[in-house]
Automatic annotation (TrEMBL):
It comes from Equus przewalskii. This is Anion exchange transporter isoform X5. The keyword Transmembrane helix applies. SUPFAM superfamilies: SpoIIaa-like. Residues 500-569 form the STAS domain. PROSITE patterns: STAS.
Length: 584
């Protein structure tokens, strides 16, 4: 009797705990995506191409890690650490298959504000020049990386808190014009911060509102102090970088190995610097020696957290927005999904954990991977040129203004105003302004929305029966109300020609994102051999869609009514064999 009771108790215990264990395993797989893809990794097919890609991207990251560390106002070696540890963390927690995280220009610039404010260059003259036990670096350098690591730590904590609060679902407010304008404005700030290296000028650190204008005013006032040698070397470096990168892009299908022009340029300039003693002969600033090794972990200085709250929020918001846009873009291109909240966790931990290893704030960027590298001397104007050319993709987003103007004038206004606020203040201020504008416009447009009843619309449902295979398809088409499309369709039979009609009479307004979605639906259906027709479209919507997407010019897709669209389907050559039992 006792044994039976014990057996029964064990069975109950097993039933009670097995579901919980399964839930725990499912939670782990959800929060650690590496547990999903790693067991299914195909070594035979993927190891060799992944290794080649990793080597090429590592070479690129060496130069950008050094450059972005200088941009963050810390010793260049910390940029190499910032390329290694965040990439490892994101590989475990991130969902972007084609996204690697590491040093990033925008977050580096934001953290530089805190570094220059709390540990200015004037402190270097007041402190003793004794070296610390960490890599033989001076106390001044360690104080600076301490501030940058504190920004990274607090910024990551903010991102993890946003994950806990499930704020990733609020990313719908981050429209494409807002992100484009913010990143373009931030890239402009980054280029401006490198002017002193490009021109070889001594420019005092300037911060606060309207910094952009103050810096260029100082440059024009002291234009005679420009060093011709630095200017020529910068122009030569930028020209070489742009030309070689364009050639790599043009012939990327023919050549499997991309020329690492960044590294080649660094080596060439280092050799020239060594042979000609540019630092002494021409007065050009050089980076100097890069120490080897990885220091033991150390907690960021917690006493400065209260002083870097503003920069931490900037790193958390700007870094996440730029990273999410990259992750969503790659997911859309390669047909997989990305969880917005999971990306918050991944990037939050990629900032928190590496901050204990003297890392500057990080974010995702295409073509980044992690490696440490040790070299001797490199001129800073060459590193500045690498930063400027690396931001080319963000700077050419000025071309987006034309498409926003042709699709939606309001989106054009949001882009311009967000960019202006970013230039005049900071990236996080511009981002906040863009989001506020988006919310205000949504509220203003809401009263214009209308709800349509399909109770008395007989043409909304039709049934087509083909003679070829006797399959039936029933489709319920309802108007697009308040920007949403509601369709219910039975699964079409194989080899059946399908058609989809969207009633746009409920679209009282649209923006660039809405037009993009309509064009995306059209292209996806077209790729699946589904004919799409749009009824009751306004002239402005037709113009916007034709400008935005490469629509089929051979077949008419815009119709005055649903009846006209159905009639076109009947008269279409591909559906000429409709039976007499077809019903509308």
């Amino acid at each position: 009797m006792t044994g039976a009771k014990r057996k029964k108790k064990n069975v109950l215990w097993s039933k009670m705990h097995t579901p919980h264990w399964e839930d725990f395993k499912q939670w782990c797989r959800k929060r650690l995506p590496i547990l999903e893809w790693a067991p299914h990794y195909n070594l035979k097919e993927n190891l060799l191409p992944d290794t080649v890609s990793g080597i090429m991207l590592a070479v690129q990251q060496v130069t950008q890690g050094l450059a972005f560390a200088i941009l963050s106002s810390v010793h260049p070696v910390f940029g190499l650490y910032g390329s290694l540890f965040p990439a490892i963390i994101y590989a475990m927690f991130g969902m972007g298959h084609h996204v690697a995280t590491g040093t990033f220009a925008l977050t580096s610039l934001i953290s530089a504000n805190a570094v220059e404010r709390l540990v200015p260059l004037s402190v270097q003259n007041l402190t003793t020049q004794s070296n610390t036990s960490v890599l033989g670096l001076s106390d001044f350098e360690m104080q600076r990386i301490g501030v940058a690591a504190a920004v990274s730590f607090l910024g990551g904590v903010i991102q993890v808190a946003m994950f806990v609060l499930q704020l990733g679902s609020a990313t719908f407010l981050l429209t494409e014009p807002v992100i484009s304008a913010m990143t373009t404005g931030a890239a402009t700030h980054v280029v401006t911060s490198q002017v002193k290296y490009l021109l070889g000028m001594k420019i005092p650190y300037i911060s606060g509102p309207l910094t952009f204008f103050y810096i260029y005013a100082y440059v024009f006032e002291n234009i005679k102090s420009v060093r011709l040698e630095a200017l020529l070397l910068s122009l030569l470096s930028i020209t070489v970088l742009v030309l070689v990168k364009e050639l790599n892009e043009q012939f990327k299908r023919k050549i499997k190995v991309v020329l690492p022009v960044d590294l080649v340029l660094i080596i060439a300039s280092s050799f020239a610097c060594y042979c000609t003693s540019m630092e002494k002969t021409y007065g050009l600033e050089v980076v100097g020696h890069i120490p080897k090794g990885i220091p033991p972990p150390r907690a960021p200085p917690m006493h400065v957290l209260s002083a870097v709250i503003t920069e931490a929020f900037g790193v958390a918001l700007v870094g996440y927005v730029a990273s999410l846009a990259l992750a969503q873009g790659s997911a859309k291109k390669f047909k997989y999904s990305v969880d917005d909240n999971q990306e918050l966790l991944a990037h939050g931990l990629s900032n928190v954990i590496p901050s204990f290893f003297f890392c500057i704030p990080s974010a995702a960027a295409m073509g980044r991977t992690a490696v440490l590298y040790s070299t001797r001397a490199k001129t800073q104007c060459v590193l500045a040129s690498i930063i400027v050319v690396g931001l080319k993709g963000m700077l050419i987003q000025f071309r987006d203004l034309k498409k926003y103007w042709n699709v939606d004038k309001i989106d054009w206004g949001i882009w311009v105003s967000t960019y202006v606020f970013t230039i005049c203040f900071a990236a996080n201020v511009g981002l906040l302004f863009g989001v506020v504008c988006t919310i205000a416009i949504m509220i203003a447009r809401f009263p214009r929305a209308k709800t349509l009843s399909i109770k008395n619309i007989k043409e909304m449902e039709f049934k087509v029966k083909t003679e070829v295979d006797g399959c039936e398809q029933n489709t319920l088409l309802s108007p697009l109300s308040n920007g949403n499309c509601s369709e219910e369709a039975s699964q079409p039979c194989q080899n059946e020609k399908c058609s989809l009609i969207l009633d746009c009479s409920g679209l009282t307004f649209f923006d660039y994102s809405g037009v993009s979605m309509l064009v995306e639906v059209y292209m996806d259906c077209k790729n699946q051999s589904v004919d799409v027709s749009l009824a009751h479209c306004t002239a402005s919507l037709i113009k916007a869609m034709k400008y935005h997407g490469n629509l089929d010019s051979e077949k008419p897709i815009f119709f005055e009514s649903v009846s006209a669209a159905i009639s076109n389907i009947h008269s279409n050559k591909n559906l000429s064999k409709l039976s007499d039992h077809s019903e509308v």
